[in-house]
Write a structure and sequence with these properties.
Blueprint lengths: L2 H7 L18 H21 L11 E10 L4 E8 L16 E6 L2 E5 L3 E2 L3 E7 L5 H7 L6 E8 L11 E7 L3 H12 L7 E8 L8 H8 L4 E7 L11 E4 L5 H8 L7 E6 L2 H13 L5 E4 L1
Parallel strand pairs: 8-9, 8-12, 9-10, 10-11, 12-13
Antiparallel strand pairs: 1-2, 1-7, 2-6, 3-4, 3-7, 5-6
Length: 292
């Protein structure tokens, strides 16, 4: 089945003029949502029947194809599958899923920011005193690494929510970027995305170009919160606020939207995740997911 066939098979959205507005049960929009849920599940099953090059139970051999330094805190590492043949299948990932990368005796989970049939692109946070992440930053090209996965139970289906509000700090942007990219690349998805990201300084923001490109889409708003004053800089299309993401900011962002139609995504360190989860419950936003 090609992409055109898939789109033609999708349940058509009812015209608002066909709704009488009298609270009929079932409403045509409720019926459409049920049909859309079934269609999304069927589409997911068809995809899962294809052979995945990756395996959650065993490591597959990749090599370092390229390393790109972004700033003092982040690098992007490109991995390519070693000695691939057609029978190996292709890489299949749901946006937001992660893999485990193993080098010698060190293993760490990473959420790929992009991938092809046989490559993975990883955003790596390099810590000043982090022995292993510094080794990874300075690793030689063509070095072999092992990868297993994918892992994670987050699944996104188009148009289930009217708004997705993302709150993240640091490398948490890696979980959000492929989700946002998948939505803006889908012409049938009308979901609005509100990215709220925290970093130490504008200089330390990874994926600047990618965030600016996302912000060009009609359904994406991107706000970056900076905790350290630096030289005033601007990023086209991206709002910059010199303040830490806190409860007041969280409330001011989410209270504009109905909890029933809003999904909140959270990704940061343990303290950040716990705070955001607590605030989500406090303000009765029960549709939330924490990337841990």
């Amino acid at each position: 089945m090609n992409e055109t066939d898939t789109f033609n098979d999708r349940p058509q959205t009812p015209d608002e003029n066909n709704c009488c507005g009298n609270g009929c049960n079932p409403c045509i929009f409720d019926i459409h949502k049920q049909l859309l849920d079934k269609w999304n599940k069927k589409e997911s099953i068809q995809r899962n029947e294809s052979k995945n090059l990756l395996d959650p139970l065993s490591y597959k051999l990749f090599f370092i194809q390229e390393i790109r330094n972004i700033n003092s805190d982040y690098v992007i590492i490109y991995l390519k599958y070693k000695d691939r043949c057609d029978s190996d299948g292709n890489i299949f990932l749901n946006a937001g899923e992660h893999v485990v990368v193993n080098i010698s005796s060190w293993s760490k989970p990473f959420t790929p920011i992009s991938w092809t049939n046989d490559t993975l692109t990883l955003l790596v946070r390099v810590y000043f005193n982090g022995v292993n992440t510094n080794k990874l930053k300075n690793i030689e090209l063509n070095t072999e690494v092992r990868v297993r996965g994918p892992y994670g139970d987050f699944q996104y289906f188009r148009n289930i929510y009217k708004e997705i509000i993302m709150f993240g700090i640091g490398s948490g942007v890696a979980a959000f970027y492929p989700i946002a990219k998948a939505i803006v690349n889908d012409e049938l998805d009308d979901t609005r995305i509100y990215l709220n990201l925290g970093f130490q300084s504008v200089d330390k923001i990874p994926l600047k170009r990618e965030l600016k490109l996302l912000a060009d889409f009609w359904n994406v708003d991107c706000t970056v919160y900076i905790t350290q004053k630096d030289n005033v800089q601007s990023l086209n299309g991206v709002y910059i606020i010199y303040e830490k993401i806190n409860e007041r900011i969280f409330k001011s962002v989410v209270e504009k939207y109905l909890s029933e139609t809003t999904l909140i995504l959270i990704c940061g360190n343990d303290n950040f995740n716990k705070s955001l989860e607590t605030w989500s419950k406090k303000y009765c936003y029960t549709n939330y997911y924490v990337f841990k």
